[in-house]
C-alpha cells in the first residue's frame, strides 16, 4: 500500500457577531471596568447577563452593577495552558459568583498552584491593560484577601454608556492534518505522474473520477483502478467574469465540466487556449500540465471535431 | 394507533486512534453493509436515511454529503442529516417512522477526531460571546463539573478511578473498543481529571436499522422496541446550572417512560468518569442495573457516533436476549448540556 497522503489544513475565520442590548451593555461595561448583571422577574441577578430568563424565557433588560470581587464556586487546575486560553502559565479554570450575583461566570484564575485554590476562595477581577469590549477585557481573576483595600465597590452604574460596543470579532483557528483516504490518495498519486485514474463500480460498472471509494448509485465500495483520458469532452460550462481573490487568472475565463474519455462522471476544469466565447458543449479538450503542477493547469482544444451530443448526454 | 418501532440491526467499526488510510465514506461502508446484511435489506429497500456528523471534526463544510455516496443516494432517496450525534438522527428517523411515511430507516453516524485536536474543536460549540473566546477545552469544562461533584461529596478521585476501571474491564469483551482491560489512571489532564477519567480520542462509525411493526418482526428474531425517546436541554450558561445534577436527563427519562418499571441495563454516554456519577444519580440507577456493559465512552468515544452506539449496544443486548428492558442515553455539549434518553424493550419470553 502506498504511503498515506497528509497535508496541513488550517481553518481560520473571524466570527463577526452583533450584540443584543444586554450583551452590549455587559461588554461595554468590561471596557469601562464596570461589571453588570441582569435582574430576572423573580429578583435573581444573572452574571454574565442574558437577554432572556433561562427559566421563564421572559425578556429581561434590567441592568444592575455587581462587584469586581466574588467567590469561586468550582475550579479545575490547568497545568498545561492551550493556545488562545487567558493565561500562558498554569492557572485554574474557575466559575466565579461575583458579589451581588446569583450565577457564576467562567474565567481563569491566576494562582500559585492547585494547593492555593479551593471552592469558596475569594477572588477579584484583574483587568486587561487594553480593553475593547470583550470577555477577554477581564485578563483573569486573582486571589483576594478582604483585608486588601484595593477592591472597588460598585458605583451604582445603570448600564447606559455614551459609546456602546455593538459587536465582537471572535477569531477562531483550528489546525488539522488532512488525509484524503485510500481512493483519493490513489488518484492524487496518479496525478503526480500526470495520469488521471478513477475507480470502477463492481456493480454498475461505471467509472468515477475523482474516485471517492464508493458508488453513489449502488452504495458499494469501488476499488478497481481505471486510467481515463487524457482527452475528454466539454459537457457544460460557464463563463466566469469576477476575479477571485489571490487567483492569477484573467477574466473572463471558462470553467467547464469535462467528461474524460472512459469516465462516467465529469470533472471540473478551466478551459484555455481558445477565446472564452468560442467554448461550446461537445468541444474536445486535453489537459495542459505546468512544471511541478499537481493537477492539470487547464484543458485546451485538441482540434478534433466536436463530440456528438449522443455520446455525452448521459454525463450532463 | 401508535406504530411500534424497533431497532432491528446494529453495527459499528473498530474504534481506533487514527484511520488516515480511510476517508469517512470508506470507513462507513463496511458498517452500512453489515447492518443492511443483518436485516437482509439492500440500500434501495430503505424508506428513510438519517445521519449525524459534524463539519468541525472534518474541517470541511458540508462534509456529510461525501458520506452519502455510501448509501446509494442516486436515484434520489429520502434523506436527512443532523449536525449532532447520531442518537438525534435516530430520534428524527423514529418520528419519521411514527408518521407512517416509511417502514424502515437507516441511521448512521461517524466521526474522525484524528485529523484535528478534539479538545480545541469542541470549544467552537460554546457560547461565542462570553465563553468561546477563552478557549476552555472539553476536558477543562468536565473537570469543573468533576470538582463540583467532589465538593458536594458525591464522588472522590478513587471513586472516579473505580468508574474508569469498571468501564474498561467491561470493554474487554467488546472487540470494537479502543481502550480495554487494565488502563492506568495516569497523570492529571486538567485536575481533578486524570487521563483515565477521560475518553480515548478516536475515529469510528456506527449504524442501526429501524423498522416498524410486523416489518420489524420479519427482519429480526427479537426486535428492540423503542418504547419512548425524549431529549431535553439545560440553560447554555454553565454558571446558571447545578453541575452536580442533570435535570434534563431525568426529565427526558421520565417522558420516555423509564421510571415506570426498573430497567436491567443502562448504556450511558458519559465521556468522563464524573459524568457517569451525575447520570446515575439523575436516573436513580442502583446496583441492580448493569451500567455500560460495552465499556461505554471511556472505552471508545467516536464523537458523533458514541451516542448512537449507546442505543445500538442496548438494542443488541435485547437482540441477544441479555436484556429485556434497557435504557440508552446520549449527550452533547459541555458538561452534559443536552441529553437524550431512549427506552428499549424486548418481547416477553
Ligand atoms: Zn455502481
UniProtKB/TrEMBL annotation, chain A:
Keywords: DNA-binding. GO terms for molecular function: DNA binding. Residues 189-221 form the ChsH2 rubredoxin-like zinc ribbon domain. Pfam families: OB_ChsH2_C, zf-ChsH2. SUPFAM superfamilies: Nucleic acid-binding proteins (SSF50249). InterPro entries: ChsH2_C (IPR002878), ChsH2_Znr (IPR022002), NA-bd_OB-fold (IPR012340), Thioester_dehydratase-like (IPR052513). Residues 64-127, 226-289 form the ChsH2 C-terminal OB-fold domain. Gene3D superfamilies: 6.10.30.10. The keyword DNA-binding applies. This is DNA-binding protein. It comes from Streptomyces avermitilis.
From TrEMBL, chain B:
Signal peptide: none annotated. GO terms for molecular function: acyltransferase activity, transferring groups other than amino-acyl groups. InterPro entries: Thiolase-like. SUPFAM superfamilies: Thiolase-like. It comes from the Bacteria. This is Lipid-transfer protein. It comes from Streptomyces avermitilis.
Amino acid at each position: 500500500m502506498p504511503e498515506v497522503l497528509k497535508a496541513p489544513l488550517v481553518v481560520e475565520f473571524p466570527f463577526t457577531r452583533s450584540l443584543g442590548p444586554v450583551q452590549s451593555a455587559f461588554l461595554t461595561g468590561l471596557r469601562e471596568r464596570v461589571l453588570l448583571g441582569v435582574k430576572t422577574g423573580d429578583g435573581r441577578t444573572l452574571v454574565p447577563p442574558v437577554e432572556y430568563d433561562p427559566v421563564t424565557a421572559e425578556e429581561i433588560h434590567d441592568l444592575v452593577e455587581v462587584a469586581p470581587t466574588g467567590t469561586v464556586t468550582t475550579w479545575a487546575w490547568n497545568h498545561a495552558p492551550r493556545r488562545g486560553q487567558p493565561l500562558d502559565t498554569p492557572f485554574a479554570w474557575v466559575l466565579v459568583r461575583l458579589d451581588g450575583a446569583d450565577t457564576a461566570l467562567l474565567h481563569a484564575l491566576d494562582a500559585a498552584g492547585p494547593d492555593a485554590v479551593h471552592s469558596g476562595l475569594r477572588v477579584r477581577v484583574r483587568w486587561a491593560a487594553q480593553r475593547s469590549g470583550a470577555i477577554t477585557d477581564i485578563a483573569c481573576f486573582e486571589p483576594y484577601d478582604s483585608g486588601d483595600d484595593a477592591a472597588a465597590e460598585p458605583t451604582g452604574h445603570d448600564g447606559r454608556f455614551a459609546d456602546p460596543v455593538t459587536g465582537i470579532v471572535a477569531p477562531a483557528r483550528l489546525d488539522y492534518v488532512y488525509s484524503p483516504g485510500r481512493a483519493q490518495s490513489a488518484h492524487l498519486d496518479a496525478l503526480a505522474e500526470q495520469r488521471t485514474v478513477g475507480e470502477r463500480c463492481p456493480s454498475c460498472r461505471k467509472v468515477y473520477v475523482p474516485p471517492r471509494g464508493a458508488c453513489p448509485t449502488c452504495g458499494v465500495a469501488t476499488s478497481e483502478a481505471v486510467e481515463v483520458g487524457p482527452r475528454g469532452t466539454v459537457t457544460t460550462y460557464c463563463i466566469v467574469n469576477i476575479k477571485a481573490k489571490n487567483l492569477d487568472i484573467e477574466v473572463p475565463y471558462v470553467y467547464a465540466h469535462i467528461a474524460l474519455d472512459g469516465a462516467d462522471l465529469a470533472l471540473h476544469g478551466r478551459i484555455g487556449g481558445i477565446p472564452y466565447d468560442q467554448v461550446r458543449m461537445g468541444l474536445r479538450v486535453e489537459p495542459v500540465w505546468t512544471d511541478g503542477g499537481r493537477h492539470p493547469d487547464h484543458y485546451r482544444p485538441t482540434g478534433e471535431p466536436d463530440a456528438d451530443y449522443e455520446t455525452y448526454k448521459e454525463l450532463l | 394507533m401508535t406504530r411500534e418501532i424497533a431497532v432491528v440491526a446494529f453495527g459499528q467499526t473498530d474504534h481506533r486512534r487514527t484511520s488516515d488510510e480511510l476517508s469517512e465514506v470508506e470507513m462507513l461502508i463496511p458498517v452500512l453493509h453489515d447492518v443492511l446484511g443483518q436485516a437482509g435489506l439492500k440500500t434501495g429497500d430503505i424508506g428513510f436515511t438519517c445521519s449525524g456528523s459534524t463539519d468541525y471534526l472534518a474541517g470541511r463544510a458540508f462534509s456529510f454529503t461525501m458520506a452519502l455516496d455510501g448509501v446509494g443516494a442516486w436515484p434520489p432517496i429520502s434523506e436527512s442529516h443532523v449536525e449532532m450525534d447520531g442518537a438525534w438522527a435516530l430520534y428524527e428517523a423514529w418520528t419519521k417512522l411514527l408518521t407512517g411515511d416509511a417502514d424502515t430507516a437507516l441511521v448512521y453516524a461517524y466521526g474522525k477526531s484524528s485529523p484535528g485536536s478534539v479538545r480545541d474543536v469542541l470549544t467552537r460549540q460554546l457560547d461565542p460571546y462570553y465563553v468561546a473566546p477563552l478557549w476552555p477545552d472539553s476536558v477543562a469544562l468536565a473537570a469543573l463539573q468533576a470538582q463540583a461533584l467532589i465538593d458536594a461529596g458525591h464522588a472522590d478521585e478513587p471513586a472516579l478511578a473505580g468508574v474508569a476501571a469498571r468501564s474498561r474491564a467491561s470493554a474487554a469483551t467488546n472487540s470494537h473498543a479502543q481502550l480495554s482491560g487494565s488502563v492506568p489512571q495516569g497523570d492529571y489532564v486538567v485536575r481533578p481529571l486524570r487521563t483515565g477519567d477521560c475518553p480515548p480520542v478516536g475515529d469510528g462509525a456506527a449504524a442501526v436499522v429501524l423498522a416498524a411493526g410486523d416489518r420489524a418482526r420479519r427482519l429480526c428474531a427479537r426486535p428492540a422496541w423503542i418504547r419512548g425517546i425524549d431529549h431535553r436541554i439545560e440553560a447554555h450558561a454553565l454558571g446558571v446550572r447545578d453541575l452536580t445534577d442533570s435535570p434534563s436527563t431525568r426529565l427526558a427519562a421520565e417522558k420516555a417512560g423509564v421510571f415506570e418499571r426498573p430497567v436491567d441495563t443502562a448504556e450511558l454516554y458519559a465521556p468522563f468518569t464524573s459524568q457517569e456519577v451525575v447520570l446515575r444519580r439523575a436516573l436513580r440507577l442502583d446496583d441492580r442495573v448493569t451500567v455500560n456493559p460495552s465499556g461505554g465512552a471511556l472505552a471508545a468515544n467516536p464523537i458523533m457516533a458514541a451516542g448512537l452506539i449507546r442505543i445500538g449496544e442496548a438494542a443488541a443486548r435485547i437482540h441477544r436476549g441479555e436484556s429485556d428492558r434497557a435504557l440508552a442515553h446520549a449527550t452533547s455539549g459541555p458538561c452534559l448540556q443536552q441529553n437524550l434518553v431512549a427506552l428499549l424493550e424486548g418481547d416477553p419470553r
